[in-house]
Amino acid sequence: MAATKQSDSQVIGVAVIEDDPQLRTGLSFLINRTANFECRHVYGSMEAALDGIGKEPPRVALVDIGLPGLNGIEGVRILRERHPSVAPVLLTVYRDDDRIFQAICAGACGYLLKKTPPSRLLDAIKEIAEGGAVMSPEVAMRVVELFRQTKAPESSPNSLSQQETRLLKLLAEGHLKKTAAAELGISIHTVSFHLRSIYEKLHVHTRSEAVARALRSGLIR
User: Fold this and answer.
1) 64 in any annotated domain
2) What is the pLDDT at residue 155?
3) What is the full DSSP assignment across 156-194?
4) Minimal CB count within 10 Å: which of 18, 43, 189, 208?
5) Is residue 183 part of a domain?
6) 63 by DSSP, 3-state: which?
7) 215 touches 151 (CB < 8 A)
8) Residue at a domain's end among 144, 178, 195
9) Cα–Cα distance between 6 and 22 in angstroms, integer?
10) Same domain, yes or no, for 25 and 72?
11) Residue 39, SS3?
């Protein structure tokens, strides 16, 4: 029996844009069978998604890269322009630097590999719906390496505490708030407190900006 869902204001609306019918069905089933999640749109192409996603827009869109016709990365760029309230996440088998870099530049809020376990995928959707940005650990390490290769000197920001530095390092490695809290032995509420402090000290507004600033400044390696 499906889990009981709460009011619409508490339900996370999700769209699935995937050309593989089996995966498309599996993802929509997983989402609809999880409390407080709802798969509002299912599409086999980016063109179809762009035509229909504006009707009851979801909060998060899971997007394949290798779609027929318009690919997922270019589709995300258009989706962000037309529907800025929708947070697109690329769900793909690709982990090469070029596609990762293009996805970030296109405005993707996350980059997850298709082998991501269902429980982690649901955690990632929830975190993105709350304004976060997530990556599979393997992808996060590639992003860290990209920043190391293009590191540029910046003025030193206000000093971070040891706990804040450890938290930033975990986020750079692809941890969600929940898993970072477990690694540090603190509550998610305390993680949020540290994040607000980090944002203020680094003069940024998001986790991805904080990680990028810390990497460029040499605060984490």
Assistant:
1) yes
2) 44
3) PPSPPPHHHHHHHHHHHTT--HHHHHHHHT--HHHHHHH
4) 189
5) yes
6) strand
7) yes
8) 144
9) 28
10) yes
11) strand
pLDDT digits (tens, 9 = 90+) for 146-199: 665 654 444 445 578 889 999 988 888 878 888 889 999 998 888 888 888 888
**What is the 3 state secondary structure string of 96-146?**
CHHHHHHHHHHCCCEEEECCCCHHHHHHHHHHHHCCCCEECHHHHHHHHHH
Max Cα distance, the chain (Å) = 56
Residue 2 lies in a domain: no
Single out the residue of 62, 54, 57 nearest to residue 24, CA to CA: 62
Same-domain check for residues 94 and 175? no
Quote the Cα angle for 182-6-8, to 5°: 110
- Specify whether 127 is located in the same domain as 168: no
> What are 11-63's pLDDT values in tens digits?
999 999 999 999 999 999 999 999 999 999 999 999 999 999 998 999 999 99
| Contact indicator for 91, 139 with CB cutoff of 8 Å | no
Question: Within this chain, do residues 102 and 128 fall inside the same structural domain, yes or no?
Answer: yes
Q: Which letter does DSSP use for residue 152 in this model?
A: -
Average pLDDT over residues 83-99: 88
